[in-house]
User: Which sequence fits this backbone?
C-alpha cells in the first residue's frame, strides 16, 4: 500500500500490512508543523511546553499558599492533561474519534480553525475505513493466491495493498516509466505519491488539470521526488481517485519500462512472501 513523522526511507513494501496491524503512512514532518498555521521551531515548541508546565506549577503553589483548594479533576481529565498532542498516534486517535472535547483540545493546541479540524477528522475517518477494507482484500488475496505477479514483485507490494484512490494512477505512472515507491494517505492533511527518481524538471499541470483540482479544493505541491495533494475540504475516495488520475495523465511518458523497487524493498517483500506461504494464519489474524 502505497497502507500524522515522515520517513524518507519508507517504501511501498514497508507500508505493507503485517500480521499485527495495518501499516500506515507516517510523516517525518513534526506533528506541530503539519497542523500549525505558522510552524514553530523545535526550540519554540520546547519553550512553549516548558512555560505551560511552569505556569501550572506556579498556580498550584499560589493556591496552596492562599489556602485555596485545588480544583478537582473530572474523570479522565488527569489522563488527558498528560497526553502529548504532538504525538502522531495521539493526533490520529483524536481525529478518528467523535469526542468534541478532544477535537477542541487538538484544535486549540495546534491553532487550527474549526473548518480545518473538521476536514482532518473526516479524512482521518476515511483513511481508517479505507485501510480496514484493504486489510480484508489482503486476507482474501493470500488465501486465494499468495504468489506475487511480475508487477507486484517490481513494486514490492501486493496490488490489493495499494489504496484505491491511487491504484489506477500508480498503474498508469509505472507504465509511463515512473518508479513509484510510496503513495496514499500521508498524515491528516494530505496524500502523496513518491518516486525513486526525480521528476522531469519541466513538469507542469495543464490549466484544465489545475482547474479540476481547484474545484475539488485540492492544492498540489510538486518537489523533486514527490507530488502532494493537500486538502481544502473533505473528499471521498472517488473524488481523490479522479484527482490522482488527472495528475498521472499529465505526467509525460518517459519512454522506458517501469523499474523494480530498490533492492532492499524487493528483498523485504521476498522474505514477507516466504513467511506468508510458510504460515499464512499469522497474516490472517486480526
Assistant:
Amino acid at each position: 500500500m502505497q497502507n500524522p513523522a515522515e520517513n524518507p526511507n519508507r517504501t511501498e513494501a514497508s507500508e505493507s500490512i503485517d500480521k499485527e496491524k495495518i501499516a500506515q503512512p507516517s510523516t517525518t514532518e513534526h506533528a506541530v508543523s503539519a497542523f500549525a498555521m505558522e510552524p514553530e521551531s523545535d526550540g519554540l515548541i520546547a519553550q512553549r511546553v516548558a512555560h505551560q508546565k511552569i505556569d501550572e506549577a506556579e498556580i498550584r503553589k499560589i493556591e496552596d499558599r492562599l489556602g485555596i483548594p485545588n480544583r478537582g479533576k473530572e474523570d479522565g481529565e488527569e489522563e488527558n492533561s498528560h497526553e502529548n498532542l504532538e504525538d502522531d498516534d495521539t493526533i490520529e486517535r483524536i481525529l478518528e474519534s467523535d469526542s468534541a472535547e478532544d477535537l477542541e483540545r487538538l484544535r486549540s493546541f495546534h491553532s487550527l480553525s474549526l473548518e480545518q479540524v473538521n476536514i482532518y477528522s473526516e479524512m482521518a475517518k476515511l483513511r481508517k475505513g479505507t485501510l480496514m477494507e484493504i486489510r480484508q482484500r489482503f486476507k482474501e488475496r493470500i488465501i486465494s493466491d499468495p504468489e506475487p505477479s511480475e508487477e507486484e514483485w517490481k513494486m514490492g507490494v501486493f496490488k490489493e495493498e495499494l489504496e484505491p484512490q491511487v491504484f489506477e494512477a500508480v498503474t498508469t505512472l509505472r507504465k509511463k516509466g515512473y518508479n513509484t515507491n510510496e503513495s496514499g494517505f500521508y498524515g491528516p492533511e494530505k496524500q502523496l505519491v513518491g518516486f525513486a527518481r526525480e521528476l522531469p524538471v519541466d513538469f507542469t499541470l495543464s490549466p484544465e488539470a489545475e482547474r479540476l483540482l481547484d474545484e475539488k479544493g485540492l492544492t498540489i505541491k510538486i518537489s523533486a521526488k514527490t507530488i502532494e495533494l493537500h486538502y481544502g475540504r473533505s473528499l471521498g475516495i472517488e473524488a481523490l481517485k479522479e484527482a490522482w488520475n488527472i495528475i498521472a495523465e499529465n505526467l509525460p511518458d518517459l519512454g522506458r519500462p517501469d523499474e523494480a523497487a530498490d533492492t532492499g524493498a524487493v528483498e523485504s517483500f521476498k522474505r514477507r512472501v516466504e513467511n506468508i506461504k510458510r504460515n499464512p494464519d499469522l497474516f490472517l489474524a486480526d
Confidence is low (pLDDT under 50) at residues 1-11, 13-54, 72-79.
